[in-house]
Amino acid sequence: AKESGRGQMSLYEPAMDEKIERRRQLAAELHGALQRGEFHLVYQPIYDLAGERITSCEALLRWTNRRHGAVSPAEFIPIAEDNGQIVAIGNWVLHQACCTARDWPAHISVAVNLSPVQLRASNLPAVVISALDSTGLAPQRLHLEVTESVLLEDVDASLAALKALNRLAVNTTLDDFGTGYSALSYLTRFPFQTLKIDRSFVTDLDHSPASIAIVQTVVDLAAKLGMRTVAEGVETAAQLDQLRRTRCDAVQGYLLARPMPADMVAAMFAGTRLR
Ligand code: C2E
Ligand code: CA
Ligand code: CA
Ligand code: CA
After folding, report:
1. How far does the centroid of ligand 2 lie from the alpha carbon of residue 213, in Å?
2. Whose alpha carbon is nearest atom 45 of ligand 1?
3. Nearest Cα residue to 43 out of 269, 275, 272, 271
4. What sequence ranges are listed for the domain EAL (predicted)?
C-alpha cells in the first residue's frame, strides 16, 4: 500500500497541511479572543443520587470565533495550552464561574476545569484567592477538576499545588478517572475530595459486566478513602440504575441535563423556566 504511488501521497499531504493550517489560524485567532468577548461558559448540573437534587454545576468553556464560528474545547484548549494562552483564558474562566455561582443557592457549588499548565503555575493559589475574594464566593463552593495525566508529569509539583488548594478550603476533584496510567496508590497520595469516573466506564455499564465490576470497585475504594464519587456522561436510564446500585454519590450527563447558559441555570434555581 505504501508503494501505491503519487496519487495517494498527494491526497494525504494536503490533508496534513490543512490540519496544520487550521491549527495555525486558530492559534492566531485565540489572540485577542478574550478581549473580543468570544468566550462564554455553559453549566452542566451534577445530581446527588441520595437527595435527588442538584449539588453543583460544571462550568464548560465555549468559543465562538468571528471567522471560524463555534470551536470545540477539545480542539482549542490543547492549542491554548501549547502557546500559553490558557493561563489568561483559565483565569477568566475561574473568575467568571465564581461570579456566576455566587448568585446561586448557597448549597450549590461550581466545578471548574484546570489545565495542567495552570496547575503548574506557581501563582495558582493567588489566582484562586483573587477569584474568591473579588466575587465573594465561599471557597467550599469551588471545586477544581484536574485530570489524572497531570499527576504523573510532575508528582512533587502536583502534590504541592493540590495541598495549597486544599489549604484554601476549595474542593479538588480527580477528573476522567480510569483513563490515565496512574496507580490506584495515587489516590492515597494526592489530596482529592472527589473522584470523577470517566465516561468510557459509564458508557460500558449498559452491556459490560467487567465495567460494572470496575465502577463498583472504584466507588467502594473511594468511599473507604473518604472521597465522593461522580459518574460523568450518563446517557441512559440503564446506566443510571446501575450507578444507583453501585452507590455512586452523584451523576452528570445528557440523560439528566445538558450544559446550559448561565441565565437558564439561574432561572432553574429560581424555580422559573425561560422560554
Ligand atoms: P471534561 O472535563 O471531561 O467535560 C465533560 C465533557 O463531556 C464536556 O464536553 C461535556 O459537554 C460532555 N458531556 C457531558 N455529559 C455528556 C454525556 O452524557 N454524553 C457525552 N457524550 N458527553 C457529555 P465539552 O464541553 O466539549 O468539553 C470537553 C473537554 O474540554 C472537557 O472534558 C475538558 O477537559 C475541556 N474543557 C472544557 N472547558 C474547560 C475549561 O474551562 N478549562 C479547561 N482547562 N478545560 C476545559
Ligand atoms: Ca471536567
Ligand atoms: Ca471529565
Ligand atoms: Ca472526559
Report:
1. 23
2. 113
3. 269
4. 23-273
Does ligand 1 have an atom closer than 6 angstroms to the CB of 77?
yes
Residue 44 in contact with ligand 1 by CB distance below 6 A: yes
Task: Report whether residue 91 contacts ligand 1, using a CB cutoff of 6 Å.
Answer: no
Beta bridge partners of 39: 63
Across 154-209, the runs of DSSP E, i.e. the strands, are 171-177, 194-197
- Quote the ligand 1 centre to 89 CA distance (angstroms): 16
Hey, CA dihedral for 208, 209, 215, 218, is it positive or negative?
negative
Average pLDDT, the chain: 92
Q: What's the pLDDT tens digit per position in 9-40?
A: 555 566 778 899 999 999 999 999 999 999 99
Could you tell which of 57, 113, 256 is best to mutate to test the pocket of ligand 1, judged by most ligand atoms within 8 Å of the CB?
Answer: 113
* CA atoms of 93 and 131, how far apart (whole Å): 10
CA separation for the pair 72, 61 (Å, rounded): 9
pLDDT of residue 8: 54
Q: Which residues does 12 contact at the CB level (< 8 Å), separation at least 6? A: none
pLDDT category, 2, cuts 50, 70, 90? Answer: very low
Is ligand 1 within 6 A of the CB of residue 38?
A: no
pLDDT of residue 273: 60
Ligand 1, from 41, 60, 96, 252: best to mutate by most atoms within 8 Å of Cβ?
60
The rounded Å distance from CA 166 to ligand 4 centre is 23
Q: What is the mean pLDDT of residues 122-127?
A: 95
Q: In the chain, what is the greatest distance between 2 CA atoms, to the nearest angstrom? A: 66
Q: What is the ipTM of this complex?
A: 0.98
